[in-house]
Amino acid sequence: MKIKTNKINAFTLIEMILAIGVAAIVLIAVNAVFFTSLHLRDDTSDMVDAATPIDATVTFLKRDLQCCVTPTNGTSKVLSGGFRVGDGITSSGVSDPVAIEMCTATGALSDSQPWGDIQRVTYELKNSAVANATGRDLYRSILRNLLSTTTPVVDDQLMMSGVASVKFSCYDGATWQDAWDTTSASAVNTNLPTAVRVTIQMAGKADAQPIEMVVPIDSLSRTNMVLAATQ
After folding, report:
1. d(CA 152, CA 113)
2. How many domains does the chain have?
3. HEC states along the chain?
4. Cα–Cα distance measured from residue 181 to residue 100, given in angstroms and rounded to the nearest whole number
5. Residue 201 CB: number of other CB atoms within 10 A?
6. Distance between CA atoms of 149 and 153, rounded to whole angstroms?
7. Within a domain: residue 115?
8. How far apart are the first and last CA of the chain?
9. Domain-embedded: residue 35
10. pLDDT tens, 74-117?
11. What are the φ and ψ backbone dihedral angles of 59, each rounded to 5 degrees?
12. Residue 180 is assigned to a structural domain of this protein
């Protein structure tokens, strides 16, 4: 009499070891891809965060310069737009020396503020409030009430940090000049420049290329022409 036995199919020890090894290799590959993706995401996020203040600064600078108000005749230049560029310029209401001062038609009109669209804008470097910070902070200071008879209230807007230097150069049609002043009684340049070049050098990177841009100024310039009176 024959006894029937049921054969049970099972994995051998070698097959189990091979399966575990293959699974481990797959998990290692997936883990490497996952952490590489996280690293790329962090790098991209850091690049975007670093570029955002630069893009905003460039946008504001271009808009302010392109909308500069042309100076007019007369000694009173409250609303007619003084334009000054140079080293050690003092501007009313701003504690630090400014690199540029201009009147520009970039003010936002609103029902809650009784100001026009012409505002005085300055750009200057201030010491960072963060301890041991690299470089200084670039600020955009805005004066809306140009007719104030008291100490003007200036709104400071932080544009970007970590700046080593900022420089403005003015083009008169032939050469670039580092100083420009339309408010001085003995000023040689009484009109706006043809273009303005902005150079921003970041701190902490000696071999880093500066941020440079040239903004053309398309405005009607005044002349010394005297119109003859008609009889």
Report:
1. 15
2. 1
3. CCCCCCCCCCCCHHHHHHHHHHHHHHHHHHHHHHHHHHHHHHHHHHHHHHHHHHHHHHHHHHHHHHCECCCCCCCCCCCCCCEEEEEEECCCCCCCCEEEEEEECCCCCCCCCCCCCCEEEEEEEECCCCCCCCCEEEEEEEECCCCCCCCCCCEEEEEEEEEEEEEEEEECCCCEECCEECCCCCCCCCCCCCEEEEEEEECCCCCCCCEEEEEECCCCCCCCCCCCCCC
4. 10
5. 16
6. 11
7. yes
8. 146
9. no
10. 445 566 668 999 988 998 888 899 999 999 988 888 777 778 88
11. -65, -45
12. yes
Query: How much is the pLDDT for 3?
Result: 58
Q: Is residue 6 part of a domain?
A: no
Separation CA 147–CA 149 (nearest Å): 6
Q: Which residues contact 199 (CB under 8 A, 6 or more apart)?
A: 165, 166, 167, 168, 169, 210, 211, 212
Residues paired with residue 126 on neighbouring β-strands, in sequence order = 137
Query: Given the structure tokens 């002349």, which residue do they identify?
Result: 223
Full-model pTM = 0.72
Show the domain range for 162: 52-216
- Residues in a beta bridge with 139: 124, 158
Contact 20, 28 (CB under 8 A): no
